[in-house]
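job 3f2a | input accepted
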Amino acid sequence: MRKRHENLINLLVVEDEDVQRKLLTEFLRDAGYRVFAAPNQKTALQILEDADINIALLDIRLPDADGLTLLKNVRSNFPFVKCIMVTAMNDVNTAVAAMKNGAVDYIVKPVNFEVLREKLKNLSRDIVFEEKLFSGLRDKVELPSVVYRSDKMKKILQTALKVAPSETPILLTGESGTGKSLLARIIHEHSKRKEGPFIDVNIAAIPETLIEAELFGYRKGAFTGAYEDKRGILELANNGTLFLDEIGELALNVQVKLLKSLETGRIIPLGASTEKIIDFRLITATNKDIEQMVKESKFREDLYYRINVVHIYIPPLRERREDIVPLLDYFLKKYAEIEGKTIKGFSADAQALLVRYPYPGNIRELENIVHRAVVFAEEEYITKEDLPDYLLKIKSDNESISLSELKELNLNAAIENLERELIKRALEMENGVKSRAAKRLGISERVLRYKMGKLNLE
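job 3f2a | predicted structure (458 res):
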């Protein structure tokens, strides 16, 4: 009779050899696991996307990828899957390297089934414990500011709550305005350090000449203007969580010093001769392609791997449109109360425009649009007339171009018009401050000024 664990574990076997894959699958099913099998990386990643896998047995050699590449993909996209590498005897060094990159163990071919059984038994016990811990956290969640309906955001919040009790460094990526700061705070509030401080720092908001002093602190007289001792941000985060937003803006020389502090748990304030012990949980965030920055030597590779133990990507609002309507309702109630107005909702045509709009500024832009609409609204429903003019120019997917528009259609002109509209919108959202508008657009201020001159927007 087939055994069954108290809490059934989902296990993925990735093995390209048909006989070996079948033997492993049958043995593990007889041992009481729910088993999925894949002959290559492509199939494995699809299974991981569709099924709630707990443990993955990864062969080092696959037809469409090597085991280290697959491990990296699993660790980046499914951080709570525990990976065991399966290797031939002459690949043991590769397996050891894989463990340094996040694998929990390895086993040598030909597989000793009893050894594998024992390893899985221990891992399963840990997984059951973690699931019970997560269930307890999940039952206590009260997050009225987290408004969502999409499966994508559901998975992101589940991941955040799972990782919250650990001390694991987390890297949050995604466009500006997607809610990275809010997610960081959620993780802190459900961590072991929730009674400690949550220090939220935007690296881009601190002048480059001051960032080192702000992070590490300084002693009186350390430099001109240092009139008294000042504790640094890293010290202020002691026993709590430090959230460094826009980590991609950190200068290379400061990256070196930050990495050393993370590795040693110590800092030396500017002008000091003695070290201070620091102890905090680190969460970082960026809207940049930080992997590309590493390739271009604009971000240190060793620091990248230090902060990117668990990676959570927050998709833009246009990729999770199911969240738009509940967000509109949430912000409508919020700002109607603030402005002292009684507004029941949005008219059908206004809501159609709001749902159709791509929101380059994401949730932050949606919130600003609703706040503005509430201010302008004079009726009990927000209408098209209460919305910004640029929303009225957005065409629906099935709305055709008129013949007059078609005659004037020109690709270069269309691109210029789009650039002009985006720049005007960014400047409006940032109250005309070019440095902030450039940052919102993902370009340098110099490029922004050039484009403004070219497009006659000065």
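job 3f2a | The radius of gyration is 26 Å.
job 3f2a | closed
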